[in-house]
Amino acid sequence: MKTYKYMTTSNDTPSIYLVKDTDKVKVHSFVSPGAAFANATHIIELPTQLILIDGQFFAPFAQQFRALADSFKKPITRFYITHDHPDHYLGMGDAFADVTIYALPEISDGIHQRGQHELEEKQQHFGNIIASKLAYPTETVQPGTEIIDGVEFIFERITNTESPVTLFIKLPDLGIAIVQDILYHNTHPFITGPIDGWIATLQSFQTDRYDILLPGHGEPADKTAVDNAIAYLKNAYKIFQASANGVEYKQQLLQAFPNYAGAKLIDIYIPILFRNKN
């Protein structure tokens, strides 16, 4: 897989990748620093318009993501939110208040029901690096195939992975699958319960036709990242089953995967994971 990083400076600034460049389409990925969960968001640059996938968690990175999109001098016609975890939509309110947002019905309902609470809670915790308002989905995406600006998009509804419901987007002409939080690339995943369905979905990626995978956390990946993600989940669940508490669990997990980004995600999900252990 040839992916070119064309913008990065330090550990506290994002990295930007040119994932694919054909005569017709360019695909860009914007990845926040590891300390900011390595959130990965994407731009599909079509001949006359831009399709964006997921927002950032923190407002400054959302603003930089918007600046990247604006630099291409094409209108943003669709902004897809793949799932309703706040790190994928919370930063959008200030930076993307003017765009049309699409989501699966369940995802739209979740953001409308819980989004304001998430916003206020994160504002209290993080301060002004959280956006001042939300941008809500107004359009519904249904599973199926659609031609947009001459490019085929396949939309699928995936269940029981990192999130109960996730929008999965395929670009068959480009060999790209936008898998988001089904795949974490060299980043600690957000684990809150059983992993069997998650692993089964990852295993399906190993034999499909898509060679470039765009994760929700971490840089663009190929299929070797799928093997690593499966091994991580299996190892993490063994550690969880053997751990008496969250402190022990996190310590062993960091020892097993010392170079992974997003360690703060472990602190966020540990209370949820251990709540129903016994």
CATH class: Alpha Beta
CATH superfamily caption = Ribonuclease Z/Hydroxyacylglutathione hydrolase-like
* H-E order: EEEEEHEHEHEEEEEHEHHH
End-to-end Cα distance: 44 Å
CATH fold name, please? Metallo-beta-lactamase, Chain A
Strand residue content: 25-35%
Q: Helical residue percent? A: 25-40%
Question: How is the main sheet built?
Answer: 8 strands, mixed
| CATH architecture descriptor | 4-Layer Sandwich
Cα-based radius of gyration, to the nearest Å: 18 Å
What count of domains describes the coordinates? 1
What's the average pLDDT? 94
Can you tell me the residue ranges where pLDDT is under 50 for at least 5 consecutive residues? Answer: none
Total of DSSP H or I helical runs spanning 4+ residues: 7
Structural class: alpha/beta
How many strands?
13
Identify the overall geometry.
Answer: globular
Strand order of the largest sheet: 1-2-3-4-5-6-7-8
Task: Describe this protein's structure.
The chain has 278 residues and is an alpha/beta fold. It has a single domain (4-275), classed as Metallo-beta-lactamase, Chain A. 33% of the residues lie in helices and 26% in strands. It contains 7 helices and 13 strands. It has helices at residues 59-71, 92-95, 105-126, 196-205, 224-242, 246-256, 264-275; strands at residues 4-7, 15-21, 26-31, 40-45, 50-53, 76-80, 101-103, 139-140, 144-148, 151-159, 165-171, 176-184, 212-217. Strands 1-2-3-4-5-6-7-8 form an 8-stranded mixed sheet. A hairpin with a 4-residue loop joins strand 4 (40-45) and strand 5 (50-53). Helix 5 packs antiparallel against helix 6. The chain is globular. It starts with a strand and ends with a helix. The relative contact order is 0.13. The model has no long low-confidence stretch (mean pLDDT 94).
